[in-house]
Amino acid sequence: MNASAAAAILPCWSCKGPVCGRALFCSVCGAVQGPNAADHFARLGMTPAYDIDIDALERQYFGFQRRLHPDRFAGRSGKEKMLSQQQATSLNEAYETLKDPLKRAVYLLGLLGRAVDLSACGTISDPELLMEQMEKREAIAEADTVEAITKLSASADADVIACQCHISAAFNAGDLDAAAELATRLKYLTKLAEDARARKGRLMRGA
Amino acid sequence: MAYSDKVIEHYENPRNVGSFDKDDKDVGTGLVGAPACGDVMKLQIKVSADGIIEDAKFKTFGCGSAIASSSLVTEWVKGKTLDEAEKIKNTEIAQELALPPVKIHCSVLAEDAIKAAIADYRKKTGEGDDVPEADAAAG
Question: Which residues of B touch A141 (CB under 8 A)?
Answer without folding.
Answer: 61
